DNA sequence: CAGTATTACATAACGGCGATATGTTTTAAG
DNA sequence: CTTAAAACATATCGCCGTTATGTAATACTG
């Protein structure tokens, strides 16, 4: 399928490899294929955005609920970052706006992935019910998690975070800070974040052994 | 100067207006001008990045130190956002990575603007000395402020934040959350953030009356 | 001053891009 | 079988960044 080829090209060679002629060559067809099936490059980019959010959703729904909702929340953050690092160019298309020259996304395209926030909203509600977070707006908390971690991931993908304040260090600090600012106690937050790190390590080891990674890239 | 024309085109018409032919037309010269002066579009983009960070620095150094360092810190956040909203396309070039198709920035280009973080680091140190922040790494705090607010601004510029959780609301919440997670008490943080909002309002009214805005855009 | 080397500029061309128009082949419906 | 629709291939248009080549202006040097 053309979408699969496009996803592979995007992951392996980056945005500049996504051209009608390159796709035609790769699919053994003509440049018209993109237009008959997607109405142009914009339509194909839209499909890529949907695919990107589907992969994100797959990562987020993969975190299991435990009796430590704050650790679950931290794990959601780790899953978000993990997905972005596994599909960096796809993530750039999802949020980069005009990452591909001149291909502006529709308002509907931009808001399409909003459903993935539901995972975070539900988890925030559980944190409220457990008395770990101040009882405030769960959606607002979700938006704060989203924008803060999105910002860190964006800077990381752009190679703006370097030693000694590399992305790993900033991310761990960011996770704890987010839990604290939502109302959790500092030591409790640090403990839950540490627990989430162990759960994440176990997760990637298990799926790494099964070779289940969604995408690899250089 | 070619850089001024480029900055104007970028601000008024967006990234796709930045082409050698368009610049040649606008400057009444040929396409070679970009190559003799900047060695190509990449060089011109680099100059734009430098200009963008210079404007950011101008905004950041414009916030005055008061006896409420947390309010000063919040005002730095507001200044950062204000600069990004005043120069949205320029901000996209600074951090969008490949906002312009295929023009990858050098490692030196990406790290060039790092000096602007110094304003935040100094302010964080003052927050420590005032006993408002937990005495930890000032640079780490600065990085957290940076990535969190950068993430929010990025989502805002990309029109990802819509009512009822619009950018204004998320930003105010983000500011308070950042101060709280750095160690400030919730009510103290909220009070300083509110104070910073008033100072910001006075600021834009004063400079607005003098017509001193750095750039306007549709 | 003359002579020269460097820089700036204009023109034309190359390859690649998204997009369109047109005609042809394949597919599916009646 | 007939025909309407979908998919495809080819050629072309107007962009793009970039390069090569030749020319005019400038600055340096003896």
From TrEMBL, chains A, B:
Specify one Pfam family: TetR_N
Signal sequence, start to end: none
Q: Which GO terms describe its molecular function?
A: DNA-binding transcription factor activity; transcription cis-regulatory region binding
Keywords associated with the record? DNA-binding, Transcription, Transcription regulation
Q: Which residues form the HTH tetR-type domain?
A: 1-56
Tagged with keyword DNA-binding:
yes
Q: Which InterPro entries match?
A: Homeodomain-like_sf, HTH-type_TetR-like_transc_reg, HTH_TetR, MT1864/Rv1816-like_C, Tet_transcr_reg_TetR-rel_C_sf
**DNA-binding region location:** 19-38
Keyword Metal-binding part of the UniProt annotation: no
Q: Which domain of life is it from?
A: Bacteria
Known PANTHER family for this protein?
HTH-TYPE TRANSCRIPTIONAL REGULATOR RUTR (PTHR30055), POSSIBLE TRANSCRIPTIONAL REGULATORY PROTEIN (PROBABLY TETR-FAMILY) (PTHR30055:SF209)
| Listed name of the protein | HTH tetR-type domain-containing protein
Organism name: Streptosporangium carneum
- What does the record give as the organism's lineage? Bacteria, Bacillati, Actinomycetota, Actinomycetes, Streptosporangiales
